[in-house]
Amino acid sequence: MTRPYDPSVYDVAVVGAGPAGCTAAWAAASAGCRVLLLEKAAMPRYKTCGGGIVGASARAVPPGVTLPLKDEVSAVEFTMNGRLRRLRRTGRPLFGLLDRAEFDAALAEAAVAAGATLRDGSAVQRIEEDATGVRLGLAGGEVVRAKAAVGADGSASRLGAYVGVRLSEVDLGLEAEVPVPPEVAAAWRGRVLLDWGPLPGSYAWVFPKGDTLTVGVISERGEGEATRRYLRDFLARLKLDRFPPVVSSGHLTRCRQEGSPLFRGRVLVAGDAAGLLEPWTREGISYALRSGRLAGQAAARMAGGAAGAASEYQAAVEATLGREMRVGRQLRAAFQHRPLVFHAAVTLVPAAWRTFSDVVRGHTTFPDVLQRRAPRGALRLVGGGRRR
After folding, report:
1. N- to C-terminal Cα distance for the chain?
2. CA count, 13 A, side-chain hemisphere, 222
3. Which positions ≥6 away from 103 have C-beta within 8 Å?
4. Rounded distance between C-alpha atoms, residue 85 and residue 98, angstroms
């Protein structure tokens, strides 16, 4: 017996209007679903993020979305805690830089254009399931009902906790948005700085975005004061401490433990809410866009009554993003053990620089590089083991 149509029940509810959530909402709406996209903040809103758009990210944005780029990078300066400076240039852009508030707003517009309804200022406080689907309790007492839900509500995800996402790494990122005079902005145009830091696995960056530089550092959680000192020293070394930042922020990046669940019942998680990011560089935008699309497609199938859609989603993520994350963990372990080797390779060895460039542009992935090209010695190095 067919149940009567209930307009108060959405096919898919998506929580979080970042790259993962907006892409999930777009995918589900494009599949013909009635979609509600919930965001706790008022759009557009600031997001602590370097805003680097690598090739994998550029190819994963929904059709019709124009990337609001502030700059395109064709030169990378590498240092090790301010020393051993090396500058590598390329004849064509490596990746783009953008402001996350503008980018997320463009993605939300694409979701709405596909048919999704966006409600910002709507914080989800409770998640329940029953025989009819998912019930999301909002601040103020309202309850949203949906046949399926996608959690894309950031690294401190309520829906991720509901699903039971397990984490293997938690890092602290600190960032400052620093307005600079025209002559300083011109000196940085088209060039980024990556500094391998004094703490294990840490690094810092300068990303130019017009008249503002995004300056940040990231390191393991638990090294809070040392991470703050690293950022202060980094700004002072570059003489950027002369310019007061308009925003100073911090956030925790949480990396999923391999095999951790990505769904529970009719609730899927994607992006930061699922702990999906590159473990070495902590790049998360491409992971958010790709997992968001997969989650939105799976949620649409779930809403249509397809059995096994959630398990298929988990399998698809494991086969793609999970594979990349496994190698990323190996790279991070090796980098923490031998940062000088990595620095020397990418700055002095042409083949290593080409590999770096190809991965950043999205022409290949680290798993493919290691599987097809790397000699056995390099594979042992990436494994991070100590000499015996």
Report:
1. 69
2. 5
3. 19, 51, 53, 67, 68
4. 26
What does the radius of gyration of the chain's CA atoms come to, in whole angstroms? 21
CB 78 within 8 A of CB 33: no
H-helix or E-strand spanning residue 340:
helix 339-348
Q: Which of 192, 234, 242, 237 is nearest to 213 (CA)?
A: 192
**Rounded CA separation 12/4 (Å):** 18
CA atoms of 243 and 146, how far apart (whole Å): 48
Q: Given CA atoms 234, 236, 242, 246 in this order, what sign does their dihedral have?
A: positive
pTM reported for the whole predicted model: 0.92
Q: List all residues 6 or more positions away from 333 whose beta carbon is below 8 Å from its beta carbon.
A: 383, 384
pLDDT per position as a tens digit, 91-149: 899 999 999 999 999 999 999 999 999 999 999 999 999 988 999 999 989 999 999 99
362-366 own/partner pairs: CB under 8 Å, 24+ apart: 362/54, 362/55, 362/56, 362/57, 362/58, 362/59, 363/55, 365/324, 365/327, 366/324, 366/327, 366/328, 366/331
Alpha carbon 375 to its chain's center: 30
Task: Give how far Cα 345 sits from Cα of 93, 245, 249, 349, 386, Å.
Answer: 21, 34, 33, 5, 19
Q: Which residues contact 374 (CB under 8 A, 6 or more apart)?
A: 382
Q: Which residue has the tokens 């998506």?
A: 14
Mean pLDDT by 10 residues, the chain (388 residues): 56 98 98 97 88 95 95 97 95 94 96 97 95 93 96 94 95 96 97 96 96 96 92 97 95 93 98 96 96 98 95 97 95 92 94 94 90 53 38
